Fold each of these.
Amino acid sequence: MRAGKLNKRVQLQMPHRVKGDDGGFTQTWVDVGSKRWAGIVPISGREANRSNQTIASTESRITMRYSSVTAEISETWRVLHGEKVYDIKRIANLESADEVIELTCEAGVNDG
C-alpha cells in the first residue's frame, strides 16, 4: 500500500466499563496505541427519520497498515478522525496477508 493513500490521522478506541458509586457501570472509551495513518473513503450515505428527527449516516472504508494493534481490532471498537466518530461494522485482513486492515465503518448514527 502506498503511503500517499494513508493521509488521515486516526485514533483507535476500545470500550471500557467503569463502576460508578451507585453500583452501576458507565461505558467510557480508551485510546488504543497512538494515532496512526489511515485512508478514509466514503462508500454510501443515507438518512433516517427517528423520533421526528432526520439522522444522516455515512458508511466509509478505513484502511490502515497491519500491526500488532490493528490485529486486535474488534467490532466493539471505534475510530476517531478529528471530532468524527466511526463505529466499526466489519473488519477485513486483505488477502489474509497481514499487511493491510480494511474497516467498514458507519458515522453519524451513534457518535459516541
Note: The radius of gyration is 15 Å.
Amino acid sequence: MDEEGGIARASKILLAVEIVSPGSRRMDHKTKHTEYADAGIRHFWILDLQRPVSLVACHLTEEFGYQDAPTATGTFTTTDPFPVTLNIDRLTIEGTRSEAEFDGAHPL
C-alpha cells in the first residue's frame, strides 16, 4: 500500500500469480497477460492446476512485453524476482494428501 490513499500501484507489485480457471483459460493466458504487462507488473506466473499441474513464469521486458519461460512441471526453481523452489505437483490437495485424510474438511 502506498501513501496515496492506500492503493498499491501495479508497477510496484513484485509478482502476480494467476490460477487458471477452467472457464476462463483464454482470459488467464491472453487477456491478463496483456493487461498485467501494460500495467507494468514485472513478474507474472500462470499456474494451471489441471493435470499435469504446470507453471509459466513471465518476465516483463522493456521492448517486447512479457517473455514467457518454458512451461514448468514437477519442480520450478527461480531466483527472479526472489529465490524459490516449488514442487508444483504438491500445490493441489491431490498432490499432498488424499481428501479422505482431511476428514472431509478442506484446508482452504
Note: Residues 27 and 33 are 8 Å apart (CA to CA).
Amino acid sequence: MKRKILSLLLCAAMVTTILGGCAAGNQTTPSEESTNTTQSAQTEDSAPESEEVTVKTATTDDVKAALEDENSIVLDARISDAYNGWQIDGAARGGHIKGAESFSADWLTCDYDEEGNLEGESREEVLNGYLENKKLTEDKNVIIYDTNGTDAAAVADYLISKGIKNISTYDANEWIDDDTLEMESYPNYDLLLPASLVHEIVNGNVPEGFTDAERIVVVDVRWGDNEASGYLDGHVPTSVHINTDSFEPPKVYVDGIEEWRLADDETLVQLLLDNGITANDCVIATGPEPLAASRFAVICQYLGVKDVRVMNGGLTTWNYAGYDLETQANEPQKETDFGISAPANPDLIDTIDEVKQLLKQDNFTLVDNRTWEEFIGESTGYSYHSIAGRIEGAVFGYAGKNNSSSMSYYRNLDKTMRSADEILAMWDECGIDTNNHLSFMCGSGWRAAEVLWDAQVMGLTDVSLYSDGWIAWSNEGNPYITGDPTQK
C-alpha cells in the first residue's frame, strides 16, 4: 500500500507488456559432447534460403548451468498441468524443474478462435507477446525439455522460426527420476484438474486417494437454460448443467438499472441441493469458460462443500485432447440435507459493508481485476451499466484486455492458468503485497473469482472475493473516483 503511486506507474506501463521470465548467474552453452540434430528454419527477416540450425541435446549438467545463467532460459514444453504439479505421461514426479519457464507445445496448435477471440489478436500476436514476456530473444541460450520426446522439438522448431538459434532439447525424465534434483509444484495444484484426469473420472476410473468425499458431482457451468446455453450441443459426460442465473438471479430496478448479484445463502444452499450436491461431496466444475466454473467453485467453497475442483482450461483442453462430448441432459438427484450449517466459510466472500471496513486496515488490499479503462473510469465495462470509475483505495490488478469477459493476463492460449511466477511478478509490479489479506473484485465477481482460484492454487490462504464488485458498489451510490492515478 505504501508503494501505491510508484506501483501504479509501473502498472500503467504493463498494460501492453507484462513481466515474465526468470534467470541468474553466468553464461553457459549446452555441452558440445551432446548428440546433435539438425533442423531448418526461415525467420521473417532472413534471406529466402532456409538457414541450417543445429539443435543440440542437453545434459543434466547443462540444465543446471543454464538455471544459473542470466543469458539462458530453460523452458518446460509439456502441458501446464504437468508444470503445475500433476504426474503426466507416467512421470515419476509431478511439477517442473525449479527456475524453468512454462511454454507448452499445445499453445502452438490448441483451439483458438482468431476471428472471434476477445482480444482481437491472432495466435501469432499472442505468441509474440509470450516471447517478449519470457525474454526469449535471439541472443539467449534456450534449453527446452519434455518427457515424451515430441513437445520440446515442436517448441524448438517454433523458436527457430522466430530467429532463436542457440537451442537444445532435454529429456526431463533424467531429472525427474533423480530424487536428489529439485522439482517444484504449486502448493494446491490439485485444485486445477487435467482434462485427462476428469476423463478418467467420468468413465468410472477414479484414482485411488483422489478424494475422500462421499460422491463426485461433475457440473457444467454456463449462462442460460439447457438449450440456450449450448449445454445440449456438448458437455463433459455425466455433468449436470448449472445456469449462472440460478446463483446470480437477474434483477431490474424501477429506474431500469440491471444487476446480477449473488443470491442469498438460503437460495445458494437450495441450488446445490437441487443439483444433488451436499457438503460431503466432491464437485468438479467444468464448462466452456473457466470464469463461470471458478465462480461456482468459489460459491461451493463458501457454503462448505468438502472438496471442490475446477477443470484447467475448461472445454478448450477437453476438446484439444480429443475427448467426446455428451449431448443429452443429465438430471440431478435432488438432496434435502446439506449436512452442515452454511455458509461454513463466510470470510471467503466479502460484502460491501465488510469491504468498507477492511479498506481502513493497513494489512488489506482490494485488488481490482478489471481492464485499465474500467479502472480509470473511461469505460463501465458493461453494456447494461452506466457508471464508470473505481473504489478509492483499490489497487489495479489486471484481468484482460478490451472487455469484461477477458482474462488474458491470467491465462495461457488454451485458457489454462498462467505461470504463478508470472502472476506474482505482475502483482509485485502493481504493488500487491501477498503478505496482506487480498480481496479480489471486478464488475460482478466472475473475473475476480478466477483470480481468487489461481491465488489458492498458488497456496495463498488469506484471500477472499468481494463478490458484488463495482456494479453493486456504484449502483448503491457509494463514493468513487476516476482518472489515471499515474498522472497525479
Note: The first helix runs from residue 4 to 13.
Amino acid sequence: MARGATSLDNLAPIAVLLTQWRHTAEVHADPALLALVTREAEGDFGPVPPKA
C-alpha cells in the first residue's frame, strides 16, 4: 500500500490504514470492548432476500 500510495502522491490511504490499526489496538486493549465485538450474535436476523 505504501508503494502504491507514494507512486500516486496520495498518502491518504496510509493515514486511513494507520487509523484503522489504532482503533483495532484500542479494542484489543479494552476487555469490555473486545468481549462486545467478539461475542456470538443473538437471535435471528430474519430471512435472507433472494438474489435479484
Note: DSSP finds three helices and no strands in the chain.
